[in-house]
Design brief:
Order of helices and strands of chain A: EEEEEEEEEEE
Largest interface: A-B, 22 and 29 residues
Structural class of chain A: mainly beta
Shape of chain A: globular
Distance between the termini of chain A: 38 Å
Largest sheet of chain B: 7 strands, mixed
Order of helices and strands of chain B: EEEEEEEEEEE
Number of strands of chain B: 11
Helix content of chain A: under 10%
Number of helices of chain A: 0
Largest sheet of chain A: 6 strands, mixed
Structural class of chain B: mainly beta
Strand content of chain A: over 45%
Oligomer: heterodimer
Number of helices of chain B: 0
């Protein structure tokens, strides 16, 4: 039962343009969401997070949007850079718990 | 800045052997988490510890056990290894705030376990 889903396994974007990565969840108990970036042979790197009491959080080139009614969140990267090419995981926490539930990941490729 | 340290980075074991993975959290972090990532899969939560006590438990087989020590490092012990245990094992840590509820988890580079 995949409670956090990233329906696009891959995404290709040109350098300088916006990258939009999407994530859907089914568990209404999730109240905190995180995005991680992962390079091959490395651990996930924390990027940005958002609490369910907010609908937007911005940090530099990264912005996360949360639509609670649709159980959907998205990560916007603008402008995209070649170094952003990696696998991006959406993850969620429920009710103050410690267990991160990950999505299946989206491979982002930023082309020159 | 200091990150989460995991050792070893690579480990090859035979079926039915045992393995011990170690994790050293970021300084002043008091919570550690273990995740398993199989080939082509997302990381799956195994177990977590806060202040040396187990705080949450996921899909960890009974053949596996873990603990957190007084210096906050953690060890994941895996016995009677099976071929299906071959995976990347990530440790993460969090902390710096009072109480057991932390949000951002910071991951180590992982240990790649291969069981032959």
């Amino acid at each position: 039962d995949q409670q956090v889903k990233q329906n696009s396994p891959s995404l290709s974007v040109q350098e300088g343009r916006i990258s939009i990565l999407n994530c859907d969840y089914t568990n209404s108990m999730f109240d905190y969401f995180l995005w991680y970036k992962k390079y091959p042979a490395e651990g996930p790197t924390f990027l940005i997070s958002i609490s369910s009491i907010k609908d937007k959080n911005e940090d530099g080139r990264f912005t996360v949007f949360l639509n609670k009614s649709a159980k959907h969140l998205s990560l916007h990267i603008v402008p995209s850079q070649p170094g952003d090419s990696a696998v991006y995981f959406c993850a969620a926490l429920a009710g103050g718990g410690n267990k991160l539930t990950f999505g299946t990941g989206t491979q982002l490729k930023v082309e020159l | 800045a200091a990150g989460v340290i995991q050792s070893p980075r690579h480990l090859i074991k035979e079926k039915r052997e045992t393995a011990t993975l170690k994790c050293y959290p970021i300084p002043r972090h008091d919570t550690v988490y273990w995740y398993q990532q199989g080939p082509g899969q997302d990381p799956q939560f195994l177990i977590s510890f806060y202040e040396k006590m187990q705080s949450d438990k996921g899909s960890i087989p009974d053949r596996f056990s873990a603990q957190q020590f007084s210096d906050y490092h953690s060890e994941l012990n895996m016995s009677s290894l099976e071929l299906g245990d071959s995976a990347l094992y990530f440790c993460a840590s969090s902390g710096g705030l009072a109480g057991p509820i932390h949000y951002e988890q910071y991951f180590g580079p992982g240990t790649r376990l291969t069981v032959t």
